[in-house]
Specification:
By secondary structure, the chain is of the alpha+beta class. Helices cover 24% and strands 27% of the residues.
Length: 118
């Protein structure tokens, strides 16, 4: 029987990490992406390219699997964690409509302040 592994992916705000574990929970390998940029086109705005995040995620996973020397078919399960809330708009084909508005973005703060004061 082929050995199986579990893959954990941490989609942080600036770096994506992927970690591979055996079924006993022992760490096998870790991969890390290049830094993902944050765009501040206006004061208080914070956006990220979803395409860049996707590529960084793939980079971290490839690096992790290469370090471990295993084939992707050996992965029995995947767990994913991501950074805080935001607006991630996709079209009907699952493609990004625009850059993601990430948790650091402050343009909704006046609305939140109003809701919490009511």
């Amino acid at each position: 029987m082929t050995e199986k592994y579990l893959l954990g992916i941490d989609n942080g705000t600036t770096v994506i990490k992927a970690a591979l574990f055996d079924l006993e929970g022992q760490e096998v390998a870790v991969g890390r992406s290049e830094e993902v940029g944050i765009s501040h086109t206006k004061p208080g705005w914070a956006e990220q390219s979803m395409d860049e995040i996707w590529q960084a995620t793939a980079q971290a996973i490839r690096q992790c699997l290469d370090k471990a020397g295993i084939h992707p078919k050996a992965i029995a399960g995947i767990s994913l964690s991501g950074h805080g809330g935001g607006v991630w708009l996709l079209d009907e084909h699952g493609r990004p409509v625009r850059d993601a508005i990430i948790w650091l973005d402050g343009r909704a703060k006046p609305y939140l302040d109003q809701w919490t004061s009511d």
